[in-house]
Amino acid sequence: MPPSTQVGRQTPLTDDGMERIKKELSKDEMLDKLVLLVVGLFCMGTEFRFKYQAAQKDPYSQADVVERIRANSERCHANAIHISSIFLPDECPLLNHMINSYRKHHLKNRPAIIIIQE
Fold it and tell me: If you average pLDDT over every residue of the chain, what do you get?
């Protein structure tokens, strides 16, 4: 059959195909993919931070663009930490590094928030 007539037609899944799917969905494989996602987000946040620092020094940068770059940096870092904190153990060096970096670069100029519990 020509390829155009095979649209929507599926072949039965073989045992080998099912084993590959099970392997891709295993805990170790999912953690590998998760770590790649988290590291990617962290790297994007770091690159945005570098762009933000360069834009701050550029006298022709528009303030709204500079603020958007800063917000993107913080958002990427925060997402990486959020995802990591759900799936990785608290003593994970990667998670600790991202938290320390977030504190250093995004929380240093913010006032402390005090929560009063009654």
Answer: 88
